[in-house]
Design goal:
With 362 residues, the chain is mainly alpha-helical. It has two domains: 144 residues, no CATH class; 168 residues. Helix content is 81%, strand content 0%. It has 14 helices and no strands. Keywords: Membrane, Transmembrane, Transmembrane helix. It comes from Hymenobacter rubripertinctus. This is AI-2E family transporter. It is a multi-pass membrane protein.
């Protein structure tokens, strides 16, 4: 005789949910150091999907051939240049951390001009070491070895390959297992596409143009390591409000403190008239085609995302806030619809209820 289960059906249901949540937490903890690979694959999927749709679904090209071409394009055009920029930035910061003499020369010049002594070499070295330590927790290529970084890139491309090769099953699984209505899924998809277009394609293009202009400006006005500072401005351009002035602003101040008034004023004029306005002009043009994200969402999202996801948080942070706003809007709409439905049912019930017969006269 089979033994009777000690749990009620409701208890079994609750325990099943707890088991699913517990296993999900264990899986996420185990994949914690590789989560950026899956997030990066999702971002690349959204960026390259219009090409995949046009070639595979419209022109009926070979799915495997198109997928291989897109993976090669992503690796050569997107991943390799971005990785090279990150390594260049990290290696130069490490160099400045080991030898702070160049930084001290600049600071001593500023102290002589202002008449105030506000730092020492030990303080500068500690500050630079703190910057390197902070970057080591935000940039995977610095925090981990080459093998770990290679595994992340390989896992990203491997995931992207199956997202394209089994696209129908992937999208069908999202619709089936995500706890949202079809209209909510469409809104979330629009928010994802809008955020990725604005913060990846649009902002990357703006950052690239500003970085080239910054490097050329610094090169023309005789700033040492102009192309390195231009590379740094590519990353600072992702920061709303502050942006590239974090690079060419100190360069102009340095030239002014060194007595090169013409070069310092020239950097300030080019920066404020050309580089900043290029940002505003391109943002207006691209907002119509690639999506527009409010600067406050971008700023708060970048701070949140970099803290959680590292350098990939430049995209994932604004996306999280966009999803939060979309879900709040959906929640508000669902509550309003539910309230109207209940009110309509109540009114219909009152109308259907027969009135009591009138009382007989006394």
């Amino acid at each position: 005789m089979a033994s009777e289960n000690i749990y009620t059906p409701r208890q079994q249901y609750v325990l099943l949910i707890l088991c699913l949540v517990g296993l999900s937490v264990l899986i996420l903890v185990g994949l914690g150091s590789y989560i950026t690979a899956f997030l990066g694959a999702g971002v690349l999927y959204v960026v390259l999907r219009p090409w995949f749709t046009a070639l595979v679904h419209r022109r009926r090209w070979s799915r495997q051939l198109v997928t291989g071409g897109l993976l090669l394009f992503a690796f050569v055009v997107i991943i390799l240049p971005f990785t090279a920029l990150v390594f260049m930035l990290v290696n130069r910061i490490r160099l400045y951390a080991q030898d702070t003499s160049q930084i001290m020369v600049v600071l001593h010049t500023i102290e002589q001009k202002t008449g105030y002594q506000f730092t020492t070499e030990n303080n500068v070295r500690d500050l630079v070491q703190q910057v390197v330590s902070w970057l080591s927790t935000r940039i995977p290529s610095l925090a981990s070895g080459l093998l770990h970084f290679t595994v992340i890139i390989g896992l990203m491309l491997f995931t992207l390959y199956f997202m394209y090769m089994e696209e129908e099953a992937f999208l069908r699984g999202l619709r089936r297992y995500l706890p949202f209505r079809s209209s909510t899924l469409r809104e979330l998809g629009d928010a994802l596409r809008n955020t990725v277009n604005a913060n990846v394609l649009g902002q990357a293009l703006i950052a690239l143009v500003q970085a080239l202009l910054t490097a050329l400006t610094l090169q023309i006005f005789g700033v040492a390591d102009a192309w390195f500072w231009g590379t740094l401005s590519f990353f600072t351009a992702f920061i709303p409000v502050l942006g590239t002035p974090l690079v060419w602003g100190p360069a102009a101040i340095l030239k002014l403190t060194q007595g090169h008034t013409g070069e310092g004023v020239g950097i300030l004029l080019v920066g404020t008239i050309v580089i900043i306005n290029i940002d505003n002009l391109l943002r207006i043009v691209l907002a119509r085609r690639m999506g527009d994200i409010h600067p406050l969402i971008t700023l708060a999202g970048v701070v949140l995302g970099v803290e959680i996801f590292g350098i990939l948080g430049l995209v994932m942070g604004p996306l999280l806030l966009s999803y939060f706003i979309v879900l709040i809007t959906v929640f508000e709409r669902e509550n309003r619809t539910r309230r109207r439905t209940l009110l309509g049912r109540r009114e219909a019930a009152e109308e259907a209820t027969p009135l009591p017969p009138p009382l007989p006269p006394a």
